[in-house]
Design goal:
Layout lengths: L1 E9 L6 H7 L4 E6 L4 E7 L3 H10 L3 E9 L3 H25 L5 E5 L6 H10 L13 H8 L4 E9 L2 E8 L11 E2 L4 E10 L1 E2 L6 E2 L4 E4 L1 E4 L2 E4 L3 E14 L3 H12 L3 E7 L4 E13 L3
Parallel strand pairs: 5-7
Antiparallel strand pairs: 1-3, 1-4, 2-3, 6-7, 8-12, 9-11, 9-15, 10-12, 13-14, 15-17, 16-17
Helix pairs in contact: 2-6
Length: 286
């Protein structure tokens, strides 16, 4: 077993890699800046698969991998070959993912329509890993049909779809809705600007359950308001993948986002990946 592995990471955000690995539970033995876009990192050999899966998922360029410690030359050669093959497969995956929607962000004065627009996307068959349709006419028309919406545009770069929505003055207000729990687990963070919270941080919530109601109390008077809040729910995630260990880890990060306390268990079909995940929902806040 190799005692440590050193590698160079190249990216505009390479300086953030040591902190990213540490937050994922991977101790960084050493880190040396090689300029504004590169950093040399050393970690324990047992953490290399997990670290490479995280960095490849985030589209970092990994190069000059060097293994240190025990192990035979033949074993090292086999692992280098596997890493090269994995890099080739990952490069192909990156080219594929660049044409697919990995995340949707909202901007403009109509960003509070995020939930309604995501519902429109589902109606049009658009979701995670979908491609943006060449004919966006029907999609644009449905968004423009929302109350007060006067302008809508799309910007797609690096797997991130940004929907810019602008609203104008109109007597009709957008429908006021409560903010629902995006997953079942522990309410880890609550940011409340407007509305009434039904739970506190640390409480257990269930998926689809109202966490912030769409009303406020003014003395003894209860008035309906548009919720402005953001919540983050921490939960235990687990899923089985019919793939190699590295592919299963990479897919788990796509499915659940950043995972902590990761567990990997071999199954008859492949690997079962588990860990602590977080899901965020917001209304009126980005």
């Amino acid at each position: 077993m190799f005692s440590s592995v050193g590698f160079t990471v190249e990216s505009l955000s390479a300086r953030l890699v040591p902190d990213k690995l540490a937050r994922a539970g991977i101790p960084v033995l050493s880190a040396k800046s090689l300029g504004k876009t590169a950093v040399r990192i050393t970690i324990a050999g047992k953490d290399r698969k997990k670290a490479f899966a995280i960095l490849r998922d985030a589209c970092y360029n990994i190069k000059d991998v060097r293994l240190r410690g025990g192990g035979r030359i033949a074993e090292a050669a086999r692992r280098y070959a596997a890493l090269a093959l994995g890099a080739a497969v990952f490069s192909g995956c990156i080219l594929f993912l660049q044409t697919r929607i990995l995340k949707v962000e909202f901007s403009g004065s109509g960003a509070y329509y995020a939930r309604e627009i995501l519902a429109i996307f589902r109606e049009e068959g658009i979701g995670t890993l979908s491609s943006l349709p060449a004919d966006r006419g029907p999609l644009t028309a449905k968004i423009l049909a929302l109350p007060r919406v006067e302008f809508c545009s799309f910007d797609f770069k690096g797997g991130i779809l940004t929907v810019d929505v602008e609203t104008g003055e109109e007597t009709q207000r957008p429908k006021s809705l409560p903010l629902l729990a995006p997953a079942s687990g522990i309410l880890e963070q609550l940011t409340l600007v407007r509305g009434t919270a039904l739970f506190s941080e640390g409480d257990e919530v269930r998926i689809g359950e109202p966490v912030v109601e769409n009303y406020s109390l003014f003395g003894e008077e209860r008035r309906e308001v548009t919720v402005i809040a953001r919540i983050t729910v921490r939960y235990e995630a687990e899923r089985e993948y019919a793939a190699t260990e590295e592919e299963a880890l990479a897919q788990a990060y796509l499915d659940f986002g950043e995972l902590q306390n990761i567990t990997v268990r071999r199954t008859e079909k492949g690997y079962r990946i588990g860990g602590t995940a977080r899901s965020t929902a917001a209304s009126g806040l980005t």
